[in-house]
Design a protein that fits this description.
The chain is of the alpha/beta class. The chain contains 7 helices and 13 strands. The strands form 2 sheets. Strands 1, 2, 3, 4, 6, 7, 8, 9, 10, 11 and 12 form an 11-stranded mixed β-sheet that branches. Strands 5-13 form a two-stranded antiparallel sheet. A hairpin with a 2-residue loop joins strand 7 and strand 8. The two termini are 29 Å apart.
Length: 302
């Protein structure tokens, strides 16, 4: 029996950089959103279940737009990222508004996913090849502690409109050894990564691999995220209004300790996304070109 191949889409972020629910910005020729292309590519790569992580107040708008279009194409489930959904003995300040971060988002889906799965951001276009890479890994994974990160060449992930957040990968023999969350920008012809932890900036080459938050896990990740909550609450005890529990940190710690191995699997895909309002025009143009090249149908969902 074929096991389910699940795509977990993290869509609870508030789109603060771009204003409003940026996942719901039409980008395709017939009002398609970037998330539509993600699901289309995932289905074609063999995924047969999608789980959306959203904020409860966005449920109706999400279901009426994206849900309505894809529910008859793929098994669809919704999970609310509730900041009170934390292990017993912990709590978040009542006046916190911001979601608790990507690791917490994944934790919220623990009752919906019992099979290997991939995660993506809702507001990034990852490209066909990336889903094939992820699908191939998930179909063949045979060890609960074997994960993978789909690695993009950094030069395929930049915008002309400013810095972008990327996880810069250090890789040895195809395996991740370090993941440096950084603000990355092309300055005077050089690609400069400025680590978010305040360490010194460094130059990276065009073919350095970065993470776009497309990662593949087995369900063991839920246990590891849960085990990491005490540390998160301790490290952020003075910053529980805004501190975030992030999946790259979890993956890096597990990998460095040797608890899991994380393969970095390269993709030839080029990222498309809206980090800044000014990016939208270019994204619309990029999708138009892909449609004209018959990479996608003009009307995505028949």
């Amino acid at each position: 029996m074929n096991k389910d191949l699940t795509l977990l889409i993290m869509a609870a972020g508030m789109g603060s950089r771009f204003g409003g629910l940026k996942q719901i910005e039409p980008m395709g020729p017939n009002g398609e959103f970037l998330i539509d292309y993600s699901i289309y590519d995932a289905i074609n790569a063999g995924f047969n279940k999608v789980v959306f992580i959203i904020k409860e107040e966005n449920y109706d708008i999400f279901k009426e737009t994206i849900g309505k279009r894809v529910e008859d194409k793929i098994k669809t489930e919704y999970v609310f990222q509730d900041i009170n959904n934390v292990p017993d003995g912990y709590s978040v300040p009542k006046d916190r508004v911001k979601p608790l971060g990507t690791a917490h988002a994944i934790y919220c889906a623990k009752d919906n996913i019992h099979e290997p799965f991939a995660i993506i951001n809702a507001d990034d276009f990852y490209g066909k090849d990336a889903y094939k890479v992820a699908s191939n890994f998930l179909k063949n994974v045979d060890n609960d502690n074997s994960y993978c990160l789909v690695g993009y060449k950094v030069s395929n992930t930049l915008t002309e409109n400013g810095a972008v957040k990327r996880g810069v990968c250090n890789v040895e023999n195809g395996n991740l050894t370090e993941l440096i969350e950084s603000s990355v920008e092309k300055i005077d012809g050089k690609i400069i990564a400025k680590p978010l932890n305040g360490k010194d900036s460094f130059e990276v080459t065009e073919d350095t691999f970065v993470s776009m938050n497309m990662l593949c896990f087995t369900p063991s990740i839920f246990k590891y995220i849960e085990e990491g909550f005490p540390r998160f609450f301790e490290e952020n005890k003075d910053d529980l209004l805004t501190g975030e529990y992030l999946i790259p940190d979890v993956v890096e710690k597990l990998t460095i300790k040797g608890i899991v191995s994380t393969k970095v699997l390269p993709t030839t895909a080029k990222w498309i996304g809206v980090t800044y309002k000014e990016d939208k025009e270019k994204v619309v143009e990029s999708i138009k070109k892909l449609v004209e090249a018959n990479e996608y149908p003009n009307k995505l969902w028949k």
